[in-house]
């Protein structure tokens, strides 16, 4: 028995993420049967989701450690994996081609700036309040004092 799989449309519908830095929200962290492998889902401002696989190595610093540090702060000791959910981070995406296939890779993870994370979270009302707060005016200092 022979049949044909039509995969052209499948490849055409794959999401393409732009190269560069993106502020994203950690939407989900899934454990696997292998206790050292996790799938992390990152949600973008347009509500699209990129899922990335991480391997945790208890003996050396690796990309999963960088993700934890970016999301929870550098040097955090014991971590509950679900503590990552809801945190914002900045990821650097680089699309690469190898053997005729395109791969979307996360090259670096950094802490998200508070303002950028608020925009992703949709907290526009709080941002409007912050932007209305203006510290210009008489602060008691003269420019010559500096």
Structural features:
146 residues, alpha+beta, 5-stranded antiparallel β-sheet, 4 helices, 5 strands, 22% helix, disordered C terminus
First-to-last CA distance: 84 Å
Averaged pLDDT, please?
A: 78
- How much of the sequence is in beta strands? 25-35%
Please, how many helices?
4
The biggest beta sheet reads: 5 strands, antiparallel
Structural class: alpha+beta
Unreliable segments (pLDDT under 50, ≥5 consecutive)?
Answer: 123-146
Q: How many domains, as an integer?
A: 1
The ordered H/E elements are HEEEHEEHH
Shape field: globular
Care to describe what's here?
The chain is built from four helices and five strands; from the N terminus they run αβββαββαα. It is globular. The longest helix is centred in the middle third of the chain and has 10 residues, at 63-72. It has 146 residues and is an alpha+beta fold. The protein has a five-stranded antiparallel beta sheet.
Short note summarizing the structure:
The protein is of the alpha+beta class.
Task: Please render the helix and strand layout as text.
Layout: H1 8-12, E1 20-31, E2 37-43, E3 49-55, H2 63-72, E4 88-98, E5 101-111, H3 114-121, H4 124-132
Antiparallel strand pairs: 1-2, 1-4, 2-3, 4-5
